Amino acid sequence: MIERREFLKSLASLSAATVALPAAEESDRLGKLLPKRTLGRTGVAVTMLGVGGWHIGRMEEPEAQRTIEAALEGGIRFFDNAESYQDGASESRYGRLLTPKYRDIVFLMTKSTATDAATARRHLEESLLRMKTDYVDLWQMHSVTSVEDVDQRIQNGIL
Q: The domain 27-155: what is its CATH number?
């Protein structure tokens, strides 16, 4: 029978070895993914790098397509956007270049600058139409810079 002290030493060694092991590599139909990390308090694991929609919206369309494809080939599956980026043009670009072929494998998020519930609802509906999807994986309020901004949104029914 193993002594308690021996057992604890073995357990500690095993735990240390487990921590040192790299996480199992994930892949999908396009290939290997970048390592994932938990996104804030969501509990959702996303690739540790993402593509920002603001930049995609400012590029010429062929460059945007190459950037999206290169990101996907490089294992990125996290794509961010906002209704305010180029007045929705960036979301429209995702709707042309990203979601038709890759919606099933990407984590897609967007944001709204709305300060009241009706505008927030409209922004969400318009974002879904522009990105040609019936859901986003995460929707956030954008440009919240103060406690007063939070209070205003709560008072106006967003939360």
A: 3.20.20.100
pLDDT in tens, 27-69: 999 999 999 999 999 999 999 999 999 999 999 999 999 999 9
Per-residue pLDDT band at 159 (split at 50, 70, 90): confident
Q: Catalytic residue numbers?
A: 85
Three-point CA angle 59, 39, 101, nearest 5°: 45
Distance CA 140, CA 154 (A): 14
Residues near 54 by Cβ (< 8 Å), separated by ≥ 6? 81, 82, 85, 86, 90
Q: What angle do CA 93, 83, 68 make, to 5 degrees?
A: 30
- Locate 25 and state its tokens: 């590599």
Determine the Cα–Cα distance for residues 107 and 136; give it in Å rounded to an integer.
8
